[in-house]
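Box 3.1 A note on notation
Throughout this textbook, protein chains are presented in two layers. The first layer is the amino acid sequence; the second is a token string describing backbone geometry. Keep the layers aligned when reading.
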Amino acid sequence: MFMRSAKTFVPDALRGLIASTDDIAWNPDPGYLTRAQPLPRGQVAIVSGGGSGHEPLHAGFIGAGILTAVCPGLVFTSPNALQIHEASKAVDVGGGVLHIVKNYTGDVMNFGIARELLREDAIDADVVLVDDDVASERADGSGPGRRGTAATVVVEKVCGAAADRGHSLPEVVRIGRRVAESARSMAVALAPCTLPGATESSFDLPAGHMELGIGIHGERGRERVDALPAPELVRRLTDPIIDSLQLVRGDRVIAVVNGLGATHPLELQLLFAELGEYLDQKGIRIERPMVGTFVTALNMAGASITLVRVDDQVLEFWDAPCSAPAWPNSPARTYSAVGPSGSFGPSYTPPSTPRGDESAGPWVADWAQKVLDQEPALTDLDRRAGDGDFGTNMVAALEQLDLTAMRDSYSTSTAFDAISQAYLGHAGGTSGALFGIWFRHFYRAAGNGRFDLAAVTTAARAGLDNITTLGGARPGDKTMVDAIVPAVEALEEAVRSGTKYDTALHQAADAAHAGAESTEAMIANRGRASYVGEAARGVIDPGALVIAWFFECGAGH
């Protein structure tokens, strides 16, 4: 974690926030943030806050149309009553002050004391308590109740817009409480957070497990499970929300997928796609989607799902303009289903061509199956020598193929056309392009008639020439070329000497394997492995190894 020291972590970070934000002012004693631009006379001021470590909540939501002031505490520690009292006094312009408070004991207590002090100042003040976390909900109503988590952002936005429209304090309170009562959330962690200066994480979570129902202060969850695929995970998070809100077919919701601090946008978008599909199956209509990182647990890897039942009035406030820096600058006004998983990317249906007795379909299918089976090993090789995506790219292409049909019914040209299309259309990156064009030359050679040794040799030579032209790699650069060159030379020598087909393929396979093994001692000059220099020495290039397997499988047929 970047820091000067653990003791000054929060004020050091606030310096950067203030320096990079227009409409914000810092009041160091007792410590609170306000809008730099005062409110119009008579408008309700919206004050929130809580422990730091949840950014961009709350400070990132200061701005026109949302929060007027924020009181930051230390990491995961509530602000004190004097901070809240002084902040509320500073922003009151005669319309009263609304406190939006997450349901944690320290927050509730300190905001409550601040309102007592405000009464001494003859300032009207009220509160909306956000308690949306179903993981801490008990059927008998005992305990502290639901914790306040990601629904806080929704309540802040709606209340801020209502205040900006000129609604009175009682009206803003009524609207905010209705939203809070209609909101539920649940979160999951893939890895816990670590507090500034701490040497251990907030809880232990072994690799390959997920913690369901975690809290945003680093609290462990209510259930630990083996890692779940995204559709099942979304169901496990969403069903308790639906049950708690008693959502039924025809209900309308704002749906928020929120990152907990160390979760990539691709992961959040993936979860939202699954959430949209799941809610659609249940007839629950997403009126407004929101995907991003809004309420974090410092550097926790995980996500939360929030659903808020809405009506037209709430949606009007949700859509109102807002200038807070952490609010999306172009939030979606509609939700559009995008189709089931796997529906993206070009599809390919092989033409119906009869299989000849000497079809290369079994050769290609056996090779594809071996690569699929060896994906973990290929990924490990690439992780040690490159960026770790080689195995993933191989699978992305080869999973598109019907290997049974390829073995049983595909002609040679159909088999090579299918695999070329799969790579060019689904693998992406350098490997997708190079393997796609490599197999394209085999498809072209197969279309010229009998697929004999001369055709294989012609295809391999043309593929090699095309690959070196496209990528610039030469023997010794630690790439697939180091396996292709000796294989092509072996094939060409076999054609010149009149070697039988099977023997020639075995010779090509042996030469390709020797070439692949030679890459272990090389320093890469091309490809992603070239970026890591000496670190790639001692690792066989996975592309060269896969080429060797290709000729090896050909020799077996």
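Residues 453-471 form the longest helix (19 residues). Confidence is low (pLDDT under 50) at residues 528-533.
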